């Protein structure tokens, strides 16, 4: 590390965040901007991993190797105020549906052969971690959804990725990761993500089977990632939720139609996406591929206040000297309630 004290900077960042949170809380109390006792909220736990029980069919421990995130979604008045400030038009029913939320997460990136540097390619990616907070805003009208999210946090030792991976590997008798002494230096990072989704009903099957298509397009712009993305999700099931596809660490589920209790149901889905990559901080030191393809397949079950999803995502190579394509498994557990 050069010219940057990770521990003191992380402490200062936490102090600033706590101060901002206190100010925001006071302002919301003064403006009576907190959700009313009748308003629902949703708490979601995301876990992505390329090995262990998350992906037993192809157990690896490399590249994007782990991600965890806790997301809190609700329908605050500030989300409505932001829509008013943008002068957004209501839909055909005269409604403007909005939502917002906050999240905290951590991503871990490593080279291949974490337990044996002698077998590791000199042209592999470096060890790196990303510890972040995020806030997002959503707006829905006429079967279209806008999602705007800001992520900010720290990369390097201050991300605690090394401590997290070593703790998990020790607890579950895994290989000792060797090479974290050469991880990225500590730095602050921020990303802005903007996504637009369309929902199209496809009345091909008879009730109760439902089928829909959810195309999307967007971009991410920041100090860590810069890319443009396109994709589409197909869902087939019973009592499809009133959102815009399954939740991912990269994108929380839509909360504009948030309900405390959902009808029992399930669906299977397939998502296909493509990114045109201009910059990826976590691929520093290697030559990134300009185009990244993804395919995700999974299933989601819902029962009143609980939703559970499992999926596997397959990716094309992220950088030129990568030794094979990567994939990871994902688990998402959500719980809805009222204040």
Task: Determine the fraction of residues in helical runs and give it as a percent range.
Answer: 10-25%
In percent terms, what proportion of residues is strand? over 45%
Distance between the termini: 45 Å
Stretches where pLDDT is under 50 for at least 5 consecutive residues are: 1-32
Coarse shape:
globular
CATH architecture verdict: Beta Barrel
The radius of gyration over CA amounts to: 21 Å
Quick tags:
single chain; 339 residues; mainly beta; Lipocalin; 3 helices; 13 strands; globular
What does this structure look like?
- This protein has 339 residues and is mainly beta.
- The chain has one domain (6-338): Lipocalin, CATH 2.40.128.140.
- Helix content is 13%, strand content 47%.
- It contains 3 helices and 13 strands, in the order H-E-E-H-E-E-E-H-E-E-E-E-E-E-E-E.
- It has helices spanning 6-30, 77-85, 161-171; strands at 40-49, 63-74, 97-110, 128-141, 144-155, 187-198, 200-201, 209-222, 225-238, 262-280, 291-304, 306-315, 326-338.
- The protein has a 12-stranded antiparallel β-barrel.
- Strand 4 and strand 5 (144-155) form a beta hairpin.
């Amino acid at each position: 590390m050069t010219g940057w004290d990770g521990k003191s900077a992380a402490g200062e960042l936490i102090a600033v965040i706590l101060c901002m949170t206190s100010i925001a809380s006071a302002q919301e109390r003064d403006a009576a901007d907190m959700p009313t006792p009748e308003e629902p909220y949703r708490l979601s736990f995301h876990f992505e991993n390329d090995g262990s029980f998350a992906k037993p069919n192809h157990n690896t421990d490399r590249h994007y190797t782990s991600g965890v995130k806790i997301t809190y979604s609700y329908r605050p008045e500030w989300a409505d105020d932001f829509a008013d400030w943008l002068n957004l038009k209501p839909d055909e029913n005269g409604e403007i549906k909005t939502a917002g939320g906050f999240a905290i997460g951590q991503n871990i990136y490593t080279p291949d052969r974490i337990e044996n540097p002698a077998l590791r390619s000199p042209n592999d990616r470096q060890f790196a971690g990303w510890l972040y907070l995020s806030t997002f805003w959503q707006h829905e009208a006429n079967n279209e959804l806008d999602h705007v999210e800001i992520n900010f946090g720290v990369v390097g030792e201050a991300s605690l990725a090394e401590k997290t991976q070593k703790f998990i590997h020790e607890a579950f008798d895994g290989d000792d990761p060797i090479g974290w002494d050469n991880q990225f230096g500590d730095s602050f990072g921020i990303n802005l993500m903007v996504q637009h989704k369309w929902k199209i009903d496809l009345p091909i099957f008879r009730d109760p089977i439902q089928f829909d298509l959810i195309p999307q397009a967007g971009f991410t712009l920041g100090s860590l990632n810069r890319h443009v993305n396109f994709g589409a999700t197909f869902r087939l099931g019973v009592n499809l939720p009133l959102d815009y596809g399954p939740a991912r660490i990269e994108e929380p589920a839509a909360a504009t139609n948030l309900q405390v209790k959902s009808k029992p149901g399930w669906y299977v889905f397939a998502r296909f996406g493509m990114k045109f990559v201009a910059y990826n901080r976590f691929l520093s030191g290697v030559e990134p591929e300009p185009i990244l393809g993804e395919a995700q397949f999974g299933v989601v079950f819902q029962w009143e206040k609980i939703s559970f999803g499992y999926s596997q995502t397959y990716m094309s190579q992220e950088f030129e000297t990568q030794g094979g394509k990567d994939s990871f498994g994902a688990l998402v557990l959500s719980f809805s309630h009222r204040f």
